Amino acid sequence: MAIYKFASLPDAEALKAPLAAFCCSGGIKGTLILAPEGINGTVAGSPDAIDALAEFLFVSGPFGDRLVGAETKYSFAEEAPFLRMKVRLKPEIVTLRAPEADPSKRVGTYVEPEDWNELIDRNDVVLVDTRNDYEVGLGTFQRALDPKTASFVEFKDYVAKNLDSARDKKVAMFCTGGIRCEKASSYLLSQGFEEVFHLKGGILKYLEVTPKEESRFAGECFVFDERVSVGHGLELGSATLCRACRHPLTEADRDHKDFAEGLSCPYCAGDTAKHEAAAERQHQMDLAKKRGTAHLGDAVKEIAARAKAEKIARAEESRARNSEG
Q1: Would you tell me how many other CB atoms lie within 10 Å of the CB of residue 215?
Q2: Which of 116, 217, 280, 324 has the most other CB atoms within 10 Å of its CB?
């Protein structure tokens, strides 16, 4: 279960222990972030355990009804994707460091994926990608503005320097799954922007439900797991990760003169420390291959292939479950 919701949780510290205890008692693993502004994270367990967790979060647990209506997505895997359970306390579930942005009180207008094309095709709408530069580099919506941020906290500076509430009357924003642009829309409203829109469910939901021939999204969407990127229909993308700096790489990046498999890429070409660490990792992989055993990092492609097959085989079951929520 992947979940997020902006909600007033001033008792987040007190909620940590009972939430962690409940998850551990049911064999659930993963990471959940609690903050005074809400909850965010992904966990995995048996179907019965996840059902029990949903009951705990939305009905019977110490949260009361504060998490009702949370953005919740279910998916399936043959093997447990996480090694341990962690409940973390943080000041924010999405770090912007702008107290005036409070999505639990005010956000922009949600736009369903089915209505997104009509909105962004309008000439009077300014379209902004709220993700970081390395994510935008893999793919984005046509004519979307790229803030070129290295982290979300820089988004405030981008707004101050490039957007004008008096000039930009309609602003539409999007992100990977919906959470980041939800906070961004709240921030813009606090800065005097009157008509602010954001894509409900983010790029992932858009790619899932929008026919490829009707799509305005060009490229692939970066995801924060072993798949690296996905395309239309959430099919496994072609991007890989540099094992030295963890930057996502396109086919063009892998053709660059500074790319060396497992060792370096165009984005870390001058970082000797990263290259030495990557070289040692590659050495261990080579040794494991000679011994006939699998190195931890050697399983990434196999895991991604299994994830893709599992996604196809159980897509309808996931959609049915999500539609019930």
Answers
A1: 16
A2: 116
Per-residue pLDDT, 300? 44
- Residue 79 covered by a domain: yes
Distance of CA 217 to the CA centre of its chain: 17
| Number of Cβ atoms within 10 Å of the Cβ of 143 | 11
Mean pLDDT of 303-317: 50
Residues 278 and 262: beta-carbon distance below 8 Å: yes
pTM of the model: 0.77
Query: Smallest Cα–Cα separation from 87: which of 165, 8, 28, 167?
Result: 28
Which domain range does residue 269 map to? 220-324
Out of 175, 181, 221, 265, the active site residue is 175
Q: Which helix (H) or strand (E) holds 113?
A: helix 113-120
What tokens were used for 38? 């809400």
In this prediction, what percent of the chain has a pLDDT beyond 70?
A: 83
Per-residue pLDDT tens for 211-270?
999 999 999 999 877 678 888 888 888 888 888 888 999 889 999 998 988 788 999 987
Phi, psi of 194 (to 5 degrees): -95, -40
Please say whether the beta carbons of 132 and 152 come within 8 A.
yes
Per the structure, how many domains does the chain have? 3
Instruction: Assess whether 245 carries a catalytic annotation.
Output: no
